[in-house]
Amino acid sequence: MPLEVRTTSTLSEAASLLQAERTARFLAGGTLLMRAVNEGDVSFSTIVRTTDPAFGRMRAAGGRIELGAGVTMAQILASRELAFLHPVARAVGGPAVRTMATVGGNLFAAHPYGDFATALLALDARLQLASGFGVREMALEEFLQARERGPRQLVTAVSFERPSDPTAFRFRKMTRTHPKGAAVVTIAALVPASGGRVSAARVALGAMAAQPIRARAIERALEGRPLTAEGVAAAVAAAAREGDPPTDALASAWYRRRVVGVVLRRLLLGEV
Ligand SMILES: Cc1cc2nc3c(=O)[nH]c(=O)nc-3n(C[C@H](O)[C@H](O)[C@H](O)COP(=O)(O)OP(=O)(O)OC[C@H]3O[C@@H](n4cnc5c(N)ncnc54)[C@H](O)[C@@H]3O)c2cc1C
């Protein structure tokens, strides 16, 4: 089937095209979309792409970080200001994938992918969404919860607060193949401490549900506790009750529930 590629010079034109043609798909880095094309997916016959410079723009210097949805993992790895996100970007595929894979595309990547989205969830990111009617903001968590049900929208940018203490941001991905396998479990956490005790932690889990999720039982169990073996024990126990992990070729749901607490304990205690 012929495939039409429409290139727009602005994000708003791209959003209007996507809205007008419900089966059109947006092309970012193409690491997933072009694979679908090559595998003969005929559910769409139009691809929309944009050359709008805003799509790949980063504002990483200040307290509020803004990443255009077209920013790639390689761009993040090249930014000194985003050093705290380098372990996250490095966890996405191999070097060839990272050259193309975008922040926005990661928000749509189905299980077991979505490592960057998991980190953004722990950072409480907000999205800018464009439609033919204009631009609106939405919390990433709300977006992910509705991702499978809602209409496809164009994500133009992502923004979040820079952690005041970069060491409070933690990320760990467990895989079966190294160095670039897909996730058995991914955990991102922001664990600010005040007087040696955790205050207002945010923890997100990847590969523990159909999409990345906030782990509220873990967050509650960490509140007011020190990051010691004893202090994190309740959070580690709570981890097995979070989410609804899928069974796939990488791991069973049972295994994911068994292992998530182990990964969480290592992440919180800084163990290898
Ligand atoms: C070999 C290989 C290894 C991989 N390893 C990992 C991994 O370890 N971790 C991981 O998380 N992912 C991995 N991925 C998946 C993928 O590369 C990443 O998730 C990547 O970030 C997707 O971004 P993209 O720009 O390539 O998306 P695309 O392929 O361009 O798009 C993917 C989907 O998202 C939609 N989309 C993209 N951008 C937008 C936007 N701004 N607004 C609206 N819709 C949009 C597209 O229409 C399409 O449906 C891997 C993929 C491959 C092929």
Describe this structure in words.
The chain is an alpha+beta fold and 272 residues long. Helix 2 links the parallel strand 2 and strand 3. The protein has 2 domains: 1-108 and 124-162, 2-Layer Sandwich (Uridine Diphospho-n-acetylenolpyruvylglucosamine Reductase, domain 3), CATH 3.30.465.10; 166-269, Enolase-like, domain 1 (2-Layer Sandwich). The N and C termini lie far apart (50 Å). The chain has helices at residues 11-20, 33-38, 73-77, 86-90, 95-100, 103-106, 115-122, 140-146, 216-222, 233-239, 253-269; strands at 4-8, 25-26, 46-50, 58-59, 64-68, 126-131, 134-139, 154-161, 169-175, 183-190, 193-194, 197-198, 202-206, 213-214. The radius of gyration is 19 Å and the shape is globular. Bound molecules: flavin-adenine dinucleotide. Flavin-adenine dinucleotide binds next to strand 2, helix 2, helix 5, helix 6 and helix 7.
* Tally of DSSP β-strands: 14
CATH fold name of the largest domain: Uridine Diphospho-n-acetylenolpyruvylglucosamine Reductase, domain 3
The major sheet is characterized as: 5 strands, antiparallel
Radius of gyration: 19 Å
Helix content class: 25-40%
**Strand adjacency order, main sheet:** 4-5-8-6-7
Which residues form runs of ≥5 with pLDDT under 50?
none
What is the annotated CATH architecture of the largest domain?
2-Layer Sandwich
Q: What is the count of DSSP helices, taking H or I runs of 4+ residues?
A: 11
First CA to last CA: what distance? 50 Å
CATH class placement of the largest domain: Alpha Beta
The average pLDDT score comes to 96
Beta-strand content: 15-25%
Question: How do the SSEs run, as a string of H and E?
Answer: EHEHEEEHHHHHEEHEEEEEEEHHH
The rough form would be described as globular
Number of domains: 2
Bound molecules: flavin-adenine dinucleotide
